[in-house]
Amino acid sequence: MSLDQIIPAALQLPAKERALLAASLWESIADPYAHGGQRSDEDAVTLALARDEELENGMVSPLSHADLMQQLRA
Question: Which of 19, 33, 52, 55 is the most exposed place for a label (fewest CB within 10 A)?
């Protein structure tokens, strides 16, 4: 079944069932940023600074939420 078939069918579900479907789908996605335990404040700051540096030096480009969602749906 393709997304072109699933999405219209899902949108016809009652709101409660759509919410349950959305929650089930969300829970099925592994978090690529999951950390195996609590991250210390120092580690969190170090990670944030490293990601900021990646943006500043052009290694990565910022992406708006709308652009991300558009790319995921393409």
Answer: 33
